Fold:
Amino acid sequence: MDEMKVSISVIIPAVNEADNIIRQVNFFKTFGYDKVTEIIVIDGDSEDDTALYAEKAGAKVIRSAIRSRAAQMNAGAKMAKGNILYFVHADTKIVESFVKDIRQSFQSNYDAGCYRYQFDAESKLLKLNAWFTQFDFLMFRGGDQSLFIKKEVFQQLNGFDETFVIMEEYEFLIRLRKQFKFQIIQKDIVVSARKYEHNSWLKVQLANAIAFTMFRLKYKPEKIKNFYNRFLRYRYNQ
Structure:
């Protein structure tokens, strides 16, 4: 991909992210240089001022009555003008070299990719979790790692399957990797440990393992989501 033709649409699905959204939008404005064409925030019916703060920071905002990442990210992708889509969570801290990294990935003939990560916590158990994200196995992937993809590839795959109200990234990656080349960039982005702050490490690990097993056994996404939301305490149910 020619450097001069790189145009990145950053797509941020968000719910109740007023504490993070300004920082995130400003980051991409600062380090996107002339390659980030737009920053699109899809607000999933937040109870706080996420949408207002995102607009004030300079993002394009879509207000979605549906609180589901698959639907929110698809809505952002439909609006996107860039030839690269970069899906990022509002609470994830991306490396400043992301433009260079993404460009090099596509120049190396990859069609999509993500980063490995570290948590914003000093827990040794969480450091162990993060260590596994360098490896190329589906169970070590997830939306926290962000996802960059050629827009034409995303369109060929018909985007995220909106019936997946949870585990949408896993379902998408399975389809993606059957046809296209995927890279894990060996640099650490930083993801929030706040889910672990409301639950024990063991309980989150157990919930993740059961949810992933249910996904592999082809349980309906609604059943997986209902289990996950009942099992864990978290700041909102998405």
The chain has a mean pLDDT of 94. The longest helix spans residues 201-216. Strands lie at 8-14, 36-43, 60-63, 84-87, 112-119, 147-150, 182-191. The chain is about 40% helix and 20% strand.
